[in-house]
Amino acid sequence: MGIFLKSMQLASVGVLALALAACGDKAEETTKTDDSTKTEVKDTATEARTLTDAMGNKVEVPAEPKRVIASYLEDPLVALGITPVAQWSLNEGASVQGYLQDKLKDVDLINYDLPFEQVQSFEPDLIIMDSPSMVEGGKYEQYNAIAPTYVIGAELNNDWREELRTVGSIFGMEDKADQVITDYEAKAKEAKAQIEEKAGKKSAAAIWLVGGSFFIVKQDLSSGDVLYNDLGFEVPAVVEEISASGENNWNAVSLEKLVELDADYLFLVNSDGSESATLSDSLWKSIPAVKAGNVYEFGPETSWLYTGAVANEQIIDDVLESVAK
Asked: How far apart are CA 82 and CA 239, in angstroms?
């Protein structure tokens, strides 16, 4: 996942840093046994089923999977009320999906590249992979020998709604997935109206400061998708330009280019902290939104670098608190 794993679905800070260096309500019941988390999802499919995944694999899905590994798919799991047996992490836990930790804080960590021995140690009864790139080079057969393995999508960037629906179908929770999406759409519609009533029709951009460099999100992915497609902010010309030319979800942008950024609002994901000299640079201070005092800062533990029902709802809350309070 991340830029070099998933190219992607919006990486965490650690993932991008490595990438740059290298180039009806369902209840759940969680119990502890031998210091490992087990999750039983009730009112789901009551019989084992054979499903066909995005790669054409016939997957024997247990009736009620209790020990699920779905690395970097924790957002749809949490949205459906499912707790995995292990959660995505990087650098031995130095980086996790912080915005999900209110639900996953007690869940053990597994390294992002899913080493076979580590996967096997969790004794999963179902493994869910995000894309074919995660199982290429014969890896699918090795994971499938550990537990039934289902590959969600054929693309590196799967639409989060379709991803959620697919995860829902694996667990027999199609209605729940549809309801999550319906609730999200209603929230986004209401938020858009509040923003337009309070601030009018404005432009905005999400930028990320990490390692002293700035990155800007593509207009149709993650927080860009939320800002422009869901909340109706206008797309600045600089964002359009970088979205058309950039190869990654977050693409590098120079301070000199940011000075041209004609955005009314800037949402800054600051991974460098208050000690960053970049934010004291005279060029930074000459950016129109900065000069106007319309910069809203968030930390890397927030959901702005991710995508999914849970992540996007939190982004909407942040935007409302920033510009429509």
From this structure: 36
Q: Structurally, how many domains does the chain consist of?
A: 2
Q: Are residues 211 and 237 in the same domain?
A: yes
- The burial of 53, by beta-carbon neighbours within 10 Å (0-12 exposed, 13-18 middle, 19 or more buried), is given as buried
CA distance 319 to 273: 20
Q: 223 and 148 in one domain? A: no
pLDDT digits (tens, 9 = 90+) for 74-117: 999 999 999 999 999 998 788 999 999 999 999 999 999 999 99
Nearest by Cα to 308 from 222, 183, 228: 222
Same domain, 85 and 201: no
Are 128 and 189 found together in one domain?
no
Give pLDDT tens digits for 227-285. Answer: 999 999 999 999 999 999 988 889 999 999 999 999 999 999 999 987 777 888 999 99
The string of pLDDT tens digits covering residues 18-27 is 444 333 333 3
Distance from CA of residue 196 to its chain's centroid?
Answer: 26
Which structural domain range is residue 49 located in?
Answer: 2-172
Q: Is 65 found in the same domain as 46?
A: yes
Contacting residues for 110 by C-beta, under 8 A, at least 6 apart: 69, 71, 86, 87, 88, 89, 118, 119, 122
Distance in angstroms (rounded) separating the CA atoms of residues 239 and 230: 16
Same domain, 156 and 292: no
Nearest to 207 by CA among 278, 156, 277, 101: 278
